[in-house]
Amino acid sequence: MRFFVRVAAAVTATVFVGTLVGCTPDDGFHDAPPDGTPSPAASSVFSTKDDARRAATLAYTKYLAATDKIAQSGGKNPERLAELVTDEWLKTEQASAEEFRDKDLHTSGSVAVTEFTIQSFDNNVVAYSCLDISGTSVRDASGKDVTPRNQPTVLPLEIAFQVKSVSPVVLVVAGSQPWSGQNFCA
Questions:
Q1: Predicted structure pTM score
Q2: Is residue 185 assigned to a domain?
Q3: Contact 155, 176 (CB under 8 A)
Q4: Which domain holds residue 70?
């Protein structure tokens, strides 16, 4: 799910609702529960699960920091994500940022990752993440907090990454969607 839509849907469903545009299972997401042990493919750029986890954690940390800044600025300059996401995901994030600007919304605070587990890895990586949004709020143009009070504060997500560079190995975010199975963040 797009970052801004994810924040808005979770943080303020009544104010900012966008179309959920995410990856489908054919785009690298899988239906396996988050407790399996992944194994690398024979041609994987990663030797171990730990190598994949380090690369994905670095990519996701940079991505979340950038999306926090964009959301805090009211959706300005989403192109700063260009080096952190695939071209397709950038278009999705740019459209989402535009919706944020059109609604004249911005966030305060930052999201935090409370859990991050590799689901699968080969030349791409899929990970599960628990995204804590309790430290964020959505504000309107006047600064009024428009955050609904009855909302989940930790979101189970499935994140897809693609290899941008092999030497050194660099991943970029290719998509994010809510986990539809049992909540592994509870």
A1: 0.81
A2: no
A3: no
A4: 3-29+46-178
